[in-house]
Structure to design on (753 residues):
């Protein structure tokens, strides 16, 4: 072969080099992807699912964020068929969004044993909201089958799982989609956000960060929200995990160090919000919230919380952002109103919640969230008026509607063959002396109304099958019965007072009370350390987000300070993070002989002093004893008490010394199991668990008529009640005797007989 010309050889080498560069660049720009697995238990199925002959299908819902697509999908089913099933004839049908994916035939040797099978899910059918429907077709004999026979069952294990390979999408920088991609309603996982602040953030920046965190907490709701805080630097990206969602707060004079280049991050003249790509990846987004000064930064944050739906484009300038109407006590959007009757339509959380179908329909449940200080002690009951419709049976049989609240059975109502709409009036009693009467007013004995209450309606339709009678084979078609709780049904909490004994840390961790009494936290003052660490700031953000998740409203009126002296002039509820200020323990209301004060001094000591757990089992600590134990390991505390500066106001402090202490506090506030162990006025947090106790003096918040309050306060003291009754009788007798003497004296003066 003749030698190629030099110019042609050089051209070929150039083309090969450009091709290699193009392939390398394409490889570098390949969208990041990562595997995700969710078990049925993580998808809101807390127990194994039972498929039967007359209830032979179950639906599993799962979601996909709108900034991702699914590359691959697989369903792993772990199930145990009944040993009475016929192999080869019995099988499962698996649907994805009502498209048949596969049929799983129950083979020889499988009945009575747990089986694990895989089903491929077509990724082209996977959208932001998806349903997997599993349908059981079971046979125990080839003739004269009874569809309600007890042998027809299949147990679907809760550790069955959906596996996806999720791939990131490169989204345009358009604020019209806000709060996406930072929060997506399709994502049922806990919300995880990164917050970047300037080094040594000042009070105004911390306050704006708290308001922004509470806004995302109100969106996250039951999902929960966590915040990783960093100063000055953007977090590093990891392509093996879902990409970070980052929020940056800055002013012209106080900005993170990574914004030093004013060409890329120019100063602003007003309040601005920008959506940017991360410098290292176009798939990760940065929400840059800027202000010329602290006032403009606060305005930009309020605009996100109030008018995020009005934003558009890559950059938005905020001219004005103020709430129009001040909040009122107990008006949190997530709380059921207690000043008027409430229709069920106001309690519905998703379409179809008030409907059920099938021979064995799923229960209809409604959640009623109430402020924890609602006073229902020794009340006659809470009116509940329920309207319902249902498929009428062919004859009057044993079909019934069972009603319960918080797992407590209220009563049972017959489902008759008459086709008229039914109206029943129920009363949820809070005393044990009331019983059902002839007017169908059902009473609940000893009902305890809490902060979150579930009203449950179970429709039970009776049916008779005759297909398995000896010598007579008959096919029966199961009726698709339907039932509806009318949205005009009413529950009425009006007329009840607000009164509560404090401190109560259980109310704080469950509903953010007493700070959540005002949904915008206008009655709250937050105290942060002078130089908070990222962990302390993250704890503050997550606590405010948790309160907002309970109320459903951001903390727009939040006030924050780093100066302990401000607390002395405050008449607000106090929320303290970090070591408790020295001056607070010297306040008149915080006497040094109170056990809460002893605990605070121990928490402020360095190194952190530990105390024996056995001492927490006593109501009072020995003032003359002194125990100090130096040990390694995280130890934190949550303390509640009356504010030493304003009677009737509360103080809650989240105390710690070392970084691991604050990490333990954050983990505890995100663990529902540990939160159930927090109550009283002192909660000690360790790796081994939570120890809580009510110590010190109690105080009361709210208002009651004086006679009700007197009766309530004396109810735990029967001796005092008896003495009060005796004194009342004696006083009445004296008054009556003096009145009779006066009448007798008057007759004597007038000369009347």
């Amino acid at each position: 072969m003749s030698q190629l010309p030099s110019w042609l050889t050089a051209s070929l080498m150039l083309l090969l080099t450009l091709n290699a560069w193009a392939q390398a660049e394409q490889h570098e720009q390949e969208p990041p992807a990562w595997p995700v697995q969710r078990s049925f238990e993580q998808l809101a199925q807390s127990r194994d699912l039972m498929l039967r002959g007359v209830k032979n299908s179950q639906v599993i819902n799962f979601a996909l964020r709108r900034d991702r697509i699914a590359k691959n999908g697989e369903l792993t089913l772990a199930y145990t068929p009944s040993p009475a099933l016929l192999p080869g004839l019995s099988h499962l049908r698996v649907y994805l969004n009502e498209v048949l994916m596969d049929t799983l035939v129950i083979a020889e040797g499988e009945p009575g044993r747990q089986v694990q099978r895989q089903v491929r899910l077509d990724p082209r059918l996977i959208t932001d909201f998806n349903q997997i429907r599993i349908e059981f077709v079971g046979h125990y004999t080839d003739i004269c089958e009874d569809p309600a026979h007890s042998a027809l069952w299949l147990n679907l294990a809760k550790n069955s799982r959906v596996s996806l390979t999720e791939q990131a999408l490169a989204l345009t920088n358009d604020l019209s989609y806000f709060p996406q991609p930072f929060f997506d309603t399709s994502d049922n996982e806990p919300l995880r956000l990164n917050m970047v602040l300037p080094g040594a953030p000042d009070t105004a920046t911390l306050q704006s960060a708290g308001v922004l965190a509470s806004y995302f907490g109100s969106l996250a709701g039951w999902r929960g929200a966590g915040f990783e805080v960093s100063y000055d630097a953007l977090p590093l990206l990891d392509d093996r995990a879902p990409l970070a969602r980052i929020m940056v707060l800055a002013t012209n004079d106080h900005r993170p160090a990574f914004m030093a280049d004013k060409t890329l991050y120019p100063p602003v003249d007003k309040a601005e919000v920008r959506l940017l790509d991360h410098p290292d990846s176009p798939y990760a987004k940065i929400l840059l919230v800027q202000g010329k000064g602290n006032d403009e930064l606060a305005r930009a944050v309020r605009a996100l919380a109030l008018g995020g739906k009005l934003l558009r484009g890559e950059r938005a300038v905020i001219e004005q952002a103020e709430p129009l109407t001040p909040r009122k006590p107990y008006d949190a959007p997530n709380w059921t109103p207690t000043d008027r009757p409430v229709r069920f339509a106001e309690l519905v959380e998703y379409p179809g919640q008030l409907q059920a179908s099938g021979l064995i329909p799923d229960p209809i449940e409604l959640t009623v969230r109430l402020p924890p200080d609602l006073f229902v002690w020794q009340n006659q009951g809470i009116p509940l008026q329920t309207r319902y419709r249902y498929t009428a049976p062919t004859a009057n049989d044993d079909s019934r509607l069972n009603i319960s609240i918080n797992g407590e059975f209220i009563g049972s109502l017959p489902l008759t063959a008459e086709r008229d709409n039914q109206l029943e009036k129920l009363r949820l009693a809070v005393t044990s002396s009331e019983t059902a009467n002839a007017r169908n007013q059902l009473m609940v004995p000893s009902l305890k109304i809490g902060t979150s209450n579930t009203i449950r309606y179970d429709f039970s339709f009776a049916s008779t099958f005759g297909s398995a009678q000896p010598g007579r084979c008959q096919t029966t078609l199961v009726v698709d019965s339907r039932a509806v709780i009318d949205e005009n049904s009413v529950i009425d909490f009006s007329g009840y007072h607000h009164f509560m004994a404090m401190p109560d840390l259980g109310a704080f961790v469950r509903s953010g009370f007493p700070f959540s009494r005002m949904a915008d936290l206008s009655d709250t003052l937050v105290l942060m350390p002078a130089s908070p660490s990222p962990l302390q700031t993250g704890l503050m953000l997550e606590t405010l987000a948790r309160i907002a998740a309970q109320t459903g409203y951001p903390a727009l009126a939040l006030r924050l300070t780093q100066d302990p002296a401000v607390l002395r002039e405050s008449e607000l509820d106090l929320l303290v993070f970090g070591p408790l200020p020295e001056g607070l323990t010297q306040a008149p209301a915080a006497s040094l002989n109170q056990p809460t004060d002893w605990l605070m001094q121990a928490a402020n000591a360095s190194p952190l002093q530990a105390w024996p757990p056995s001492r927490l089992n006593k109501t009072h600590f020995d003032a003359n004893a002194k125990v100090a134990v130096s040990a390694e390991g995280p130890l934190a505390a949550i303390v509640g008490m009356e504010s030493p500066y304003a009677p009737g106001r509360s103080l809650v402090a989240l105390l710690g010394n070392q970084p691991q202490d604050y990490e333990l506090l954050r983990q505890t506030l995100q663990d529902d199991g540990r939160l159930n162990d927090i109550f009283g006025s002192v909660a000690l947090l360790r790796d081994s668990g939570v120890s809580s106790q009510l110590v010190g003096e109690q105080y009361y918040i709210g208002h009651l008529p004086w006679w009700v309050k007197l009766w309530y306060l004396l109810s735990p003291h029967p001796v005092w009640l008896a003495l009060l009754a005796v004194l009342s009788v004696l006083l009445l007798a004296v008054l009556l005797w003096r009145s009779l003497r006066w009448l007798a004296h008057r007759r004597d003066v007038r000369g009347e007989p």
In short: The radius of gyration is 33 Å. Residues 717-750 form one domain. The mean pLDDT is 81.
